[in-house]
Fold this sequence. Notes:
By secondary structure, the protein is an alpha/beta fold.
Amino acid sequence: xxxxxxxxxxxxxxxxxxxxxxDLRTGSIVGFxxxxxxxxxxxxxxxxxxxxxAFEDPALSAAISERIIGRTLADMRLxxxxxxxxxxxxxxxxxxxxxxxxxxxxxxAKLEDANIPPERLQVEVTETVFLGRGANHVEQALRLxxxxxxxxxxxxxxxxxxxxxQLMHFPVDVLKIDKSFVREIGRKGDAEAITKxxxxxxxxxxxxxxxxxxxTGEQELYLLGLGCRMGQGHLYSRAVPxxxxxxxxxxxMLRGPLARSA
Length: 262
Ligand code: G
Ligand code: MN
């Protein structure tokens, strides 16, 4: 397993798939999240959790990330050339990547090289980037990206240890409600209370809120009732290969129960 994981970033088999994210009321797609998938030698598709060991090695993790960002920007360039209006693409960035030097500068340079407007990119970070050594550097990096037009999303929100005060110090445009809360909607009052608090917090601070991991119509209805407009999850679509994005957009495949009846 470790051997395969070590080999993986060198091959052509590590690639982003794209999960649509959209407006729960209208069903229209507003963007995509790039998610790492890895095709193993038997042709099976694997998820990051299955190659977790690879991410514990900083050099390897950086190599994988570099490759995924490169592939994602290349896909975005192709879509722009073909006038495929994908909205934006969000990439996931780990704390370790920010701490190692010039991440933000390099990312902006790559966007410029590919002639991609920074507004087309979103960077998702988890609360852990705000903690520990290097937090100052992270703040500078996020601010540089944000000033250039890249939007910043706080991923897995509600599961980390950062304080709410971090929201004042860092440029945060989007809060993503962690799927562990969404999963418990209709089952656990506590999870519903946390979901509601996050939606309200986002609205009071003028920050967009996106619910992740929506799998049922019941969850969708509950979120809509709270005033949560944006979401993503298997109810709409799993992450799909880049070749499937244009067709999905043409068909506007983000269609939950409400959008279908509207
Ligand atoms: O940490 P982050 O929120 O970026 O995790 C995204 C992961 O969640 C991806 O691996 C993706 O495949 C998975 N995912 C996306 N939508 C759903 C969903 O509706 N249900 C579940 N269980 N997982 C999902
Ligand atoms: Mn994410």
